[in-house]
Amino acid sequence: MSQANLSLSSGARCALPKELRKLLQPLIDRAQALQMPIYMVGGGVRDLLLNRPPEDVDVVVEGIATPLAKSAAREYKAKLVSHPQFLTHSLIFRNGRHLDIATARTETYAEPAALPVVEPASLQEDLYRRDFSINAVALSLNPGDFGHIWDPFGGVEDLQQKKIRVLHAESFKDDPTRIFRAARFAGRFGSELEWRTREWLSECIAQQLPSRLSGARLREELIPLLMEKDPRPAFRLLAQWSALTFLVPNLKWEKSHELFFGQLIRSRTKGDPLMMRLLVLVHAIPSPKAVGSLEHLMFPEAMIQQIEQALHVLACLRNGTLTPKEAQATQRRPMSGEVKTFLEKAMRIKAIVPKKEPVEQWQRLQDSAPCLSGRDIRDLGYKPGPVFTRIFDALRQARWEGKLRTREEEIRFLMLAFPLNGS
Ligand code: CTP
């Protein structure tokens, strides 16, 4: 954390990195032409104050942002996605980065956890509707006071003192997703919750308000939690607050999570990181329950199927129920790289697999994958069709029994068991 930057107080200035300035300049010029006060806001400003590169950039203007967003989309040749009911617009660049342009606004919530009704407002009101003081800071992009930090709620000081603080008593009730955000920021920055914030958070949990959130909204919180550089501190906090099961019922934070996530963070693992981390999160939940939870969160079907397969194989290995028939069935559905890596790593963690036998069984399952591919078998003269399933089952069975090791042995076995003129 940069001490130089953190000596900033309200009224100080903050320089924009060159690249960011270059990115924003066309937007700033257009806002000026339209005589609209324009500010960078939220997490991006917080990150600049911490000397961290901002992930995505959020900009607000005082006044209706629509004409500015439309003309900026043309200028940047970016895709424009607008949410008129929330007065927000997203420019999506070819490299996948986002630039959000919104009308400064107030939010009112008809009931806890409902989506807000928004109305145009001043910058100050826009900052007041935000989650935490550290995210309620703005950086002026206007010619008169470019770089000036607007910090009406003491966000800079909270950043300095590592405090997470909501701006009013209704904050968590209005938007219970802020519980998960509080854990994420506290975990990321090593911050503590200010005492009233902690009390309001506990009240919201005691009233079970997060259970009113839709599966899709919960998923949008779970993904960034999992994708934190080190997700463990945030999950520890959620477990401590009894808030973990709102995300995934039946989830308990265990020693195996600490070890597994620790391993994952230290090693450079290939494949889809979200898939790997989701697998680690649900590794101790029985497969049908984990599947039900992930369906509720509306994760894609293909991801859920992989997780189901991984948890099923893990359970078979741990319970010693990986019969040859089960092994066959398991191998008929190809295992993704992520599932294989997950199982390999799980097998090496004693808190998950305390005995030696499952590790040996896993090795045996791995070794029973035939050397020959479908193409090899076709090249040997077999016609693709139901016989291929029989051939692969037989190859796997023979390998599982330790009768075959090499490619040559497999070919010899095939010629005898499935004579070509008889196939
Ligand atoms: N925000 C909020 N309440 C929410 C979500 C977002 O007040 N439930 C506001 C905050 O001011 C936040 C900004 O919208 O800084 C942008 O949201 P998001 O991109 O989700 O948060 P970041 O703070 O940028 O988080 P990260 O660093 O993880 O990207």
Quick structural overview:
The chain is an alpha+beta fold and 423 residues long. It has helices spanning 3-6, 18-33, 43-49, 66-76, 123-128, 155-160, 171-174, 177-189, 195-206, 215-226, 232-240, 244-247, 255-266, 273-281, 287-296, 301-319, 324-332, 337-347, 357-367, 374-379, 386-400, 407-417; strands at residues 38-41, 57-61, 79-83, 88-92, 98-103, 105-108, 117-120, 138-140, 149-150, 163-164, 192-193.
Task: Explain what this protein looks like in three dimensions.
A 7-stranded mixed beta sheet has the order 3-4-5-2-1-8-9. The protein is built from 22 helices and 11 strands. The protein has 423 residues and is an alpha+beta fold. The longest helix is centred in the last third of the chain and has 19 residues, at 301-319. α8 (177-189) packs parallel to α10 (215-226), α13 runs antiparallel to α14 and α17 (324-332) crosses α21 (386-400). It binds cytidine-5'-triphosphate. Residues 42-43, 55-56, 58, 130-131, 135, 175, 177-178, 181, 224 line the site of cytidine-5'-triphosphate (CTP).
Defining key terms:
alpha+beta, Beta Polymerase, domain 2, 4 domains, 22 helices, 11 strands, 51% helix, 10% strand, disordered N terminus, binds cytidine-5'-triphosphate
